[in-house]
Amino acid sequence: MITLEQVSKTFTARSGQVRALDDVSLHVEPGEIYGVIGRSGAGKSTLIRAVNMLERPDSGTVTVDGVELTGLDGAQLRRARQRIGMIFQQFNLLESRTVRGNVELALEIAGVDRAARRTRSAEILELVGLTDRAGARVFELSGGQKQRVGIARALAGNPKVLLSDEATSALDPETTASILGLLRRLNEDLGLTILLITHEMDVVKSLCDSAALMRDGRIVESGRLDDIVVRGESLMSPDLFPLGELPDARGTTIIEITFVGLASEEPVISRLARTHELDVSLLGAAIETIHGRQTGRTRLELTGSAAQVDAAVADLRGQGLTVARVREAR
Ligand SMILES: Nc1ncnc2c1ncn2[C@@H]1O[C@H](COP(=O)(O)OP(=O)(O)OP(=O)(O)O)[C@@H](O)[C@H]1O
Hints:
alpha/beta, four-stranded antiparallel sheet, amino-acid transport
């Protein structure tokens, strides 16, 4: 539904040239929720703005719903953009207008007549749970309600794709959860494809089907979330399962095991110690609900000979568990 191929963008800042997007390729399937995560300055905003050509790439192609946007200009581009909704961290609403007035604005610009606008805004406000606030002014609303208006406005033209630029970053945790729940419902009920950028791993964990990690204008890891969590050496794992710093080196081997949909690591640990005559200590465990499944990562310290440790790791892998050797005994 969204494909970026080898997209690059360089800005000229006072301090010199900044390569905000460096050969970025990305593919979002129809109906998917795709999250791009990264620190401030990684290039996330430039990436999402490139998808609807708010930021025109220097090179590469952007295709949305079969239309190559990088090849369009003027009226063609405006038409194609109507199929792409966007929501923002600061909502970007017109404060002086009513809720309904904000939702109808894009339809007014698109030349939709008054009666059709009214019908459509009523429909969409019901979808986001704001029917009883239709006549309220924007400044009277809470942050969560404002974002619901933002979502309703973005969906008024019936887009296939919704772009979300840090849509929950200005909201408290409870309101964030309700907005993420709404996005999930719209994805399921309307088949809406969602591409979002965020610096919060919790947003990715609770909402996304797939994710990409950006650093210095590049995508350094990407894939379906359920594949990423079982990748032993995933770059996103430390943030997906925060286990803290490794202890100081003390001549032992440290491994991390990923469990998907498994209730407890206890039998694995005791069996490991028994079978391989190793000392096994549990250094930490993090369990998260990812994609609706309980997924966990356990960090274990193994004390034994190199051969015992190798045999233990092979045994765990043989049981279908993902094992990363995060520190070798020296
Ligand atoms: N219009 C611009 N002119 C000059 N430099 C820019 C411009 N827009 C972005 N940059 C630079 O490009 C790099 C990527 O910025 P971008 O805003 O895409 O990152 P980000 O990951 O979205 O960060 P944040 O979360 O802080 O917005 C940064 O170094 C930024 O300073």
